[in-house]
């Protein structure tokens, strides 16, 4: 059973930076596609970023491209999300997710991920 635990959320000001981490246990981390999603109350879970098992390929939502960077350390079983130039609309609960063998074309779909963390709140204040 894979367990994911996010950390690093908090309250920041517009334009600030924040780094999220997601530590994984169970399974073989180097074989996972890892992703970050975010959700606000009353809305569907939104894709933010994903990274291939090797860490060599990354994918971003248009809304965060150029501001957010996803990375992973297979040695530490951890995926990261560096968030820069934060905006009020980035406010959400951020969840990491993982699964084996997620097709590239489907890496933005939450239904393709079997394992989820509990989430960490990010609030960007203006």
Per DSSP, the total helix count is 0
- Average predicted local confidence, pLDDT: 96
Main β-sheet: number of strands, strand sense, barrel status? 7 strands, mixed
* Distance from first to last alpha carbon: 40 Å
Shape: globular
Fraction in beta strands: over 45%
Low-confidence stretches: none
What is the chain-wise order of helices and strands? EEEEEEEEEEE
User: Rg, please?
Assistant: 13 Å
The strand count comes to 11
- Kindly state the percentage of residues in helix: under 10%
Quaternary organisation:
single chain
Structural class: mainly beta
Description:
The chain is an all-beta fold and 126 residues long. Helices cover 0% and strands 50% of the residues. It is built from no helices and 11 strands. It has strands at residues 3-7, 10-13, 18-25, 32-39, 46-51, 58-60, 68-73, 78-83, 92-100, 115-116, 120-125. Strands 2, 4, 5, 6, 9, 10 and 11 form a 7-stranded mixed β-sheet that branches. The model has no long low-confidence stretch (mean pLDDT 96).
In short:
This protein has 126 residues and is mainly beta. It has no helices and eleven strands. It is globular.
Structural descriptors:
126 residues; mainly beta; seven-stranded mixed sheet
Which SSEs are present, and which pair or pack?
Layout: E1 3-7, E2 10-13, E3 18-25, E4 32-39, E5 46-51, E6 58-60, E7 68-73, E8 78-83, E9 92-100, E10 115-116, E11 120-125
Parallel strand pairs: 2-11
Antiparallel strand pairs: 1-3, 3-8, 4-5, 4-9, 5-6, 7-8, 9-10, 9-11
């Amino acid at each position: 059973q894979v367990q994911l635990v996010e950390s690093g959320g908090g309250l920041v000001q517009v334009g600030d930076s924040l780094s999220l981490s997601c530590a994984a246990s169970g399974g073989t981390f180097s074989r996972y596609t890892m992703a970050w999603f975010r959700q606000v109350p009353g809305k569907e879970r939104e894709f933010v970023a994903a990274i291939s098992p090797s860490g060599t390929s990354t994918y971003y939502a248009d809304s965060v491209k150029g501001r957010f960077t996803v990375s992973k350390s297979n040695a530490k079983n951890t995926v990261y999300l560096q968030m820069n130039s934060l905006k009020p609309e980035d406010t959400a609960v951020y969840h990491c997710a993982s699964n084996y063998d997620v097709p590239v074309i489907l890496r933005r779909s939450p239904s393709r991920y079997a394992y989820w963390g509990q989430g960490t709140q990010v609030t960007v204040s203006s």
